[in-house]
Amino acid sequence: MKNDRVGFKYAIAGVYAALKTEHNIKIHFIIMFMTLFAGLLLGLTRIEWLFVLLAIGLVLALELINTVVELITDVLFEGKHETAKLIKDISAAAVLVAATFAALVGMIIFLPKLLEILI
Ligand SMILES: Nc1ncnc2c1ncn2[C@@H]1O[C@H](COP(=O)(O)OP(=O)(O)OP(=O)(O)O)[C@@H](O)[C@H]1O
């Protein structure tokens, strides 16, 4: 039980460290808070919340893993290296896929509600 608490502490420290060093993660966190705020304002249904939270969680988790991949690659490869480029590009692509999915989920859920208010 004590180990669980310690592990959680290190995990929070990991999020904090990633936020401090990675610009993209900061942007994703800001978008996350804006989306949650918009969701509260527009009154999402339970199912809509599930999709929004799933999409947000997927993007943030992949961002963190992408940061780890970048760090490990920098340690493994000194200077420019074709494989280092491949690893980083593919890892970044994983984030892009999740972010695109999240944007689509956001559009499907939020656009009709926004149009209803505006029209
Ligand atoms: N060692 C390397 N060899 C070849 N290409 C690399 C290498 N490191 C990074 N790149 C290329 O640069 C891109 C950006 O990599 P990375 O995010 O590590 O750069 P960065 O300058 O640290 O950027 P940031 O500080 O925004 O994270 C990679 O997707 C890859 O295409």
Describe it for me?
The protein is mostly helical. The chain has a single domain, classed as Helix Hairpins, CATH 1.10.287.3610. 91% of the residues lie in helices and 0% in strands. Helix 2 (23-42) runs parallel beside helix 4 (82-118). The longest helix is centred in the last third of the chain and has 37 residues, at 82-118. Bound molecules: adenosine-5'-triphosphate. Adenosine-5'-triphosphate is lined by residues 23, 70, 77, 80-81, 84-85, 88-89, 92. This is Undecaprenol kinase. The chain crosses the membrane at residues 27-44, 50-69, 90-111. It comes from Alkalibacillus haloalkaliphilus. The active site is at 63 (proton acceptor).
What secondary-structure arrangement, pairings included, does this model have?
Blueprint lengths: L1 H20 L1 H20 L3 H31 L5 H37 L1
User: What would CATH call the architecture?
Assistant: Orthogonal Bundle
DSSP strand count: 0
Total of DSSP H or I helical runs spanning 4+ residues: 4
Nearest-angstrom radius of gyration? 18 Å
Number of domains: 1
What is the molecular shape?
globular
* Average of pLDDT: 94
Low-pLDDT regions? none
Q: Ligands bound here?
A: adenosine-5'-triphosphate
- How far the N terminus sits from the C terminus, by CA atoms, comes to 54 Å
Helix content: over 70%
Largest sheet: none
**H/E topology pattern:** HHHH
Q: Structural class given helices, strands, pairing?
A: mainly alpha
CATH class: Mainly Alpha
CATH topology: Helix Hairpins
Task: Report strand %.
Answer: under 5%
